[in-house]
Amino acid sequence: DIEKHGTGLGIVALLAGTLIYSLHRAITNPLLEALRHFVIWLSTLSWWLRWIRILIMPGAVRKLMESRWEAGENFQPTTGHITSWGDYIHMQYTAALAMIFGSAAAHFLGGFSAGWPPQCLLTWTAVIFAAAGFHSDCRKQLVEEKYYEKRKVEKTAKAAQEVMLHNKLRRSSQSAPHH
Predict the structure, then answer these.
(1) What is the mean pLDDT of the chain?
(2) For residue 55, which phi and psi values (nearest 5 degrees)?
(3) What angle do CA 81, 87, 93 make, to 5 degrees?
(4) Closest Cα partner for 143 from 63, 29, 31, 28?
């Protein structure tokens, strides 16, 4: 009866959500992060493993996305897009964990059998959420690598211009007649 137990269910849901997110950030995220870095690193080892990067995110798709983000730079900076993307990825991972833990709780605590066997819809949905999250996480890493590499080059070029301007001003002040 929801009217009788609604407050308790709300509190349990809040605690369960907090626990699932904490477990993800503390346990599954570091493991998935290590796996993601391994997959991206593996794709750099040789030309014939380059297909991994192409499957993750073709260059044309990345360039189109970067162009879209640059066109809207006045409304949201690229770092904002990357941060939002990361939030969506964590939502996919935690949704997968919530489905797994929720169906396990329903099975073991309530005798609900449809939610737990491996062939059930919830389990496969959780796998799809986790796989989609991982794929998107790999895509985000490739975009971040290119973005931060581009920013590093831009900062280095700007610093070089500032040094050249400083040297030019110093030379011009040294060559000016002193009174």
Answers:
(1) 84
(2) -70, -35
(3) 140
(4) 63
